[in-house]
Amino acid sequence: MDITLDTLQPFQDTLPTPPVLRPKKTDDNEDCVNVLQICLRNVKVKLHAQLPETGLWSYQGSIPGPTIEVNRGEKVRVDWINHLQGHVPYRAFIATTGSAEPPQNDAGPSGGVPQPNLDSVTPWTVVHLHGAKTEADSDGWPENAAFPNQSQLVQYTNNQNSAMLWYHDHAMATTRLNVYAGLSGLWIIRDAEERALGLVPKSDEAEFEIPLVIQDRNLDTEANGKLNGALVYKVETDVMEFFGPVTLVNGKIWPFKEVEARQYRLRVLNASNARVYRLVLIDDNGTPCNSMIKQIGTDQGLLGAPVSFANDEGIILAPAERADLIINFANFKGKNLRWVNTATAPYNGNDPPVVPGVSDAMNRLKYPNVMQFRVSNKPVTDKFTLPASLAKSYTRITHDNFQHKQHRLIALVEDTINNMLFLNELIELGLGKNPPLNQPVFELKNKDGTLSRYYTGAHLFPDMINWFAESGSNEVWRFLNLTGDTHPIHIHLVKFQALSRQVFDVTDTSTHYDPLSGYLDTVGKPPVSYVADGTLDANERGWKDNIRVNPGEIVSVGMNFAEYTGRYVYHCHILEHEDAGMMRPFVVLPANILMFMGMDGMHM
Ligand SMILES: [Cu+2]
Prior knowledge:
Immunoglobulin-like, eight-stranded mixed beta barrel, 5 helices, 4% helix
């Protein structure tokens, strides 16, 4: 089998669906909870019909892991048992970004050097249930990871709106490697509101709801340049984020799905390390037909009303973002449709979309296919009507109607070390007239013309805990992006709504951040100033746990710290950034404890 990327044929494999696990009670007694034991173990899989098998890391032998489905409020205890063996199941390289085609378009090493410390990474893993309102000691703190033959015992209360969450590895500094090795899966919560809308398929209609886990990957080669079935993890010196030339959906490269000429509910997760997707649906002539799709939900559940798309408008999903979609194949009997990706990599929110279905090698989109839908000719009766309004429980919050106790500002910065883009940081900024001891000041000129003066509070993960949120209170966090690329920011424990996007003038960004001191500094320079309001898309106004912050923007999010207290993290969901320092802890404490600690009112 002399297969190269160019001879690998799209749409050869049927789309697999991960097995569904519904946790069971060991006894009917009210006090008993549902229990699950999930083994992490090595598995052999074929990523594509033309490729040989390869070894990966899995939850319970499935790539992606089994989909765990629960009803709202069903408490589940999970024993995540690490039975993994050996080293990460792929080779890792760093290649030099050149003026020619980016090396990430190719399979294999592309003349890169091995990343010596990465090949030898052994299983050390901790599971985080992304999007879940979880007790702190079950949230998967990145340092509390398990070696083989150890396990992580946790409890998830699932007391939140119906939504598609996902579980994945979150180990300190190696999340990108462990997730790439196969460690991710879906977790679906159902509730009465979703059922009343007719959105939960009955057991004989389960096939009309399709979960789709989208991940870009790269493939390794033998010395002769032919694919050997294995993955390869390759980054470039100027990028240092993983972008792969092929797309896996539910564990297969470019699969196809036979569908009936009716409506389906598609639940899409971008589980890639770094790639942003803009999913554009096209027919065999390359004509976009996105208007047959409506979005009904976001990361944290149903929207108030469906969101429509223009025919040429794609669905943008950054890593960890989810889209809950209703797609209607009724007018496409006997036709083939496919999803292609038109987002550039890296993504900056401002790139012109690549022409649907057309490869763009320079933008690391050499193979834009994602998957194919083959619509059957068979006559069908489809009784489902999408309601004009969806979740009654959904209300839009705004900066003005949202009473909040705290504002916080976080700056996103990056820098190069030894000519490699390496350092990514979240800088927590304190607000104050008197910065600590001669520390530089960072000035921000707000929309209303006022000047805010900030000093650098913390910037690395091991720095002091800086922020203590009062349990039960509302807060507004603002993320200022001083880098050239979009960062999807994820906050554990809470669901939030994006309140606004504002565009700031950051043209002389490089002078604001001094990597040696770790300080942001505008002394002797103009402040970073408000320019204009940006746009929140209709499908970004739902409840979310991940939000794209584009270059030069301040994105404000509002959330409530209810129910659980303790130590959590927030971070960029580009896994390479999260692993390279773009993650910070925060602590939620009861009001009286904050007072006893002398923290009340003085935390910034
Ligand atoms: Cu980032």
